[in-house]
């Protein structure tokens, strides 16, 4: 047989995670919290199991959860989705992304991807016979050149993928970014896939500008979200997407033959837990404290930082330490110093190396202190 993904390599998260474990390193590589999810949420899942919610859920998710999702979006972004036609609960955002790409990308179609990009987009496009068209975000603060994006649009462009707040850079798209995107897509039939998994992790009074909030975007957007990021349980793999009914109908065709539905008891738990908005609205403050603490702790190191605007990732510029390639340096940080991070070049167009490493600060105080102590020794 011939491989459908001949160039595909093991995810950098798996590679760095394994190296970290092998060396017993302080692990700030793969993005997940090293603290617990709320015990009340765990109790709600076990209660749902004990109460007998152990058989298939409806394809799109249980109505109570879809209702809560719609209410949340309405309150935050003033956009009303139909809970019966425009919401699907998915196996994490990764599945939502895959469903949308599979539902709409046909062989020969082009999909514009802003780089650096989360590593599941391009393989999903390629598995469906599509062609990723890459546009690199500019400079070490990752500005989008919307004119360049516009120049990449062709008659074959089927989809454009954005991610805000952005992994790995921590950049948050401004209102102006979203308006420029809206203008650019007007009069096209391009579908927007908006990856908003870090929607609630946003700092310094900035606002999350969801594609849902812009009529010219919402009418063509599949917006993807992740409960794993928001509620500290990435291993539960629960998320959702919202989209206009016409698009969602196509997504359901794929969902039906893909998994049909996702874990039922967990949906019961989230439906209950989402009734209290403070469970997600305080997340920005919670992670801003962690970001600020990490930045304070590393002040006396040779690493430089532009503070992340959102997400639980902080990029550190190590160009004053060494000129090594970021992949080599990330490996050496593990083997010589026992600290694991993620090299950013693997997400960039043409593996552009800007001498930056990504550190996940969704970690306990103890881990942040340990990491900073190590970074102080790296000169
Ligand atoms: N998109 C981005 C930008 C992410 O960082 C992640 C998680 N690493 C995902 C999607 C996937 O989310 P989930 O774990 O809910 O599948
Ligand atoms: N989203 C996580 C990160 O960026 C990784 C998820 C995964 O390993 N697929 O670190």
Automatic annotation (TrEMBL):
Q: Which residues form the Aminotransferase class I/classII large domain?
A: 26-374
Any one GO molecular function term: kynurenine-oxoglutarate transaminase activity
Highest taxon in the source lineage: Bacteria
Q: Does the keyword Cell division apply?
A: no
Query: What's in the keyword line of the UniProt record?
Result: Aminotransferase, Pyridoxal phosphate, Transferase
Single GO cellular component term: cytoplasm
Which Pfam family is one of those matched by this entry? Aminotran_1_2
- Cofactors named for this entry: pyridoxal 5'-phosphate
What is stated as this protein's family in its record?
Belongs to the class-I pyridoxal-phosphate-dependent aminotransferase family.
Which NCBIfam families does this entry report, sorted A to Z?
Answer: PRK09082.1, PRK12414.1
Q: What is this protein called?
A: Methionine aminotransferase
Lineage start: Bacteria, Pseudomonadati, Bacteroidota, Flavobacteriia, Flavobacteriales
